[in-house]
Amino acid sequence: MRFRLLIAAALALGTLFSLAGCQRPAQAPTGDERVLRVAFPIAETGFDPAQVSDLYSRTIIVNIFEAPLTYDYLARPVQIRPLTAAAMPEVSDDHTTWTLRIRPGIYFADDPAFKGQRRELTAEDYVYTIKRVYDPALKSPTLPQMQTFKPLGLTELRERALKSGQPFDYAAPVAGVQALDRYTLRIRLAAPAPRFVTLLADSAVVGAMAREVVEHYGDTIMQHPVGTGPFVLAQWRRSSRMVLARNPGFRDERYDARPAVDDAEGQAILAQLKGRRLPMLDRVEVSIVEESQPRLLGFLNGEHDMLDRVPPELAPNVLPQGELAPNLAAQGIRQATVAAADISYFFFNMADPLVGGYTPEKVALRRAFALAYDAQAEIHRVRNGQAIPAESIVPPGVVGYDPALHTGMAEYDVAKANGLLDTYGYRDVDGDGWRELPDGQPLQLVYASQSDQASRGLQELINQAAKALRLRLTFSIAKWPEQLKASRAGNLMMWGVAWSATTPDASYMLDLLYGPSAGQSNHARFDLPAYNALFERQAALLDGPEREALIRDMARLSVAYMPMKMTNHRLLTDLQHPWVVGYRRHPFLRENWRFMSIEK
Question: Where is 186: in which H helix or E strand?
Fold first, then answer.
């Protein structure tokens, strides 16, 4: 304990670099089981795919549930391949009808809900799973992602339940999702959707659920995930510890992948693991460690086998000049850095009477605050260089991302910001040094945030922007899951989050400002007809110059109205001890634990 306290003190003084050099290298775990130990910085919310959208809950979910398709783990650029489907889907020429055949002989993990029977996966399970997203009682945050593709009849079925006040009718047939026989699934869409294949590869959205399990556990289904995947939830202490164990009934799956011929890293991983039965791990132990220093120390001490994302505030000591500190490299620790397919941003609630609205003076308030926010300072001071500036909502690795695009989103100009407020009547009426609203009423901004170290750094920059504009601002501090719940209910005026792409389809990110998604993925509750129309047009187009032009137009509208201030795309650096084998961060695939091993 005393040694750990010394390390913590050294970290606080910024001397981790020298201290770690005299630290004894962490030892590989002993014993017969292959156990991967990891730490999450944010607590989970639960394990029902239809009811959660946060990254950390989904990371657990996708290792338990399975979609019909998946991504090749090693292929770059990304490639989609069958998972529970026997082959890639048959697709009509107009991209509105998708037909898949589910492989016979795939079974759900054993559970009391099945009453001692072994339960085979069928096409009907996917019909039920997709319908659950539309059940109004669940308020599914994945509904906008599904509605983007407009499966026939499901929105009408949802509206019928809403209007009647009756339970959602799961037995009602709909043309949009049908089981043609025990193993054949057909999905029909109202409009062409060339990229619907990406949804079929997202186990966090269409990971098959069994109706018997949902009905057996009722309101506690978030605590009882039962899928066909390689792991089962063996232990769970909320916001503290989760343990996944190998699913003893998992089918015979073997490691296979298709890295490019010139991909040395991918080819090396394939050569080492090809043909081995999945999963290779016996257990995954997940701890919640919210503060970054203890999380790093846990890794350095060998309590965790991996460090998922080096905390930016510790990057100068761990990654001087972007490279792993020599003393850490000497211990066999490995570094892997990639540009994340994500966006960091803060939003203004467009339904809020103070910061929301589409009139010129409301737009001026939001644009002024965005201009006064120093996004470059966030990159350097809070993220320690572990990010790149954002000009639009579309991140690297996603179709439509243009590194040369300049929209004005990244502009920082305090004088211009103050000029905007002056022009639209935001003046200090009572002489106390703070601006009031144009009608003379008080102007009090409230920014929601958390208590962790990174959030505190962001609070300093938000406060700096407010002071530069002479705007009163206070912070409302709560844990992340609580802020998420409040945001979905429309109860936050301003909040900052990050959003990670789960597919290479830009629609997933553009949906963050799509009107019908308000209260779900659209935390800003932005609802602009011009933006909505562009969203729907681009969704029906094949990838190419015409679609990319529409995406650029949408980016410019987001700057013009400023419902969100996009600040950066993060650079992610993962660290692994030498006994971790097979890890490679995939841009969109979250279920990487099935492809990893611990070699002692």
Answer: strand 184-188
Amino acid type, 278: L
Place of tokens 């920059």: 461
User: Residue 401: left if φ>0, alpha if ψ -120 to 50, beta else—which one?
Assistant: beta
438 near 445, Cβ under 8 Å?
no
- Looking at the domain 1-64+229-338+577-600, which fold is it? D-Maltodextrin-Binding Protein; domain 2 (3.40.190)
| CATH number 3.30.43.10 is the correct assignment for the domain at 67-210 | no
Q: Which CATH superfamily is domain 342-572 in?
A: Dipeptide-binding Protein; Domain 3 (3.10.105.10)
Q: What is the CA radius of gyration of the chain?
A: 25
Mean predicted confidence (pLDDT) in 357-362: 97
Report pLDDT digits (tens) over 342-356. Answer: 999 999 999 999 999
Distances (CA, A) of 219 to 213, 225, 520: 11, 13, 21
Residue 289: closest CA among 458, 43, 479: 43
Whether the per-residue pLDDT at 46 is higher than 50: the answer is yes
Rounded CA-CA distance 167/169 in Å is 6
- In 3D, which of 412, 348, 345 has the Cα closest to residue 377? 412
Residues of the chain with CATH 3.90.76.10: 67-210
pLDDT tens across 469-493, in order? 999 999 999 998 899 999 999 999 9
Q: And the tokens for 528?
A: 């602009």
Q: Write the CB contacts of 454 (distance below 8 Å, at least 6 apart in sequence).
A: 292, 311, 312, 313, 382
Q: Each residue of 182-231: pLDDT tens digit?
A: 999 999 999 999 999 999 999 999 999 999 999 999 999 999 999 999 99
DSSP string, 334-349: EEEEEE-SEEEEEEE-
Asked whether the beta carbons of 547 and 311 are under 8 A apart, the reply is no
Sole residue written with tokens 């043309």: 175
**How many C-beta atoms lie closer than 10 Å to residue 202's C-beta?**
24
CA distance 64 to 111: 13
pLDDT band at 17 (very low <50, low <70, confident <90, very high): very low
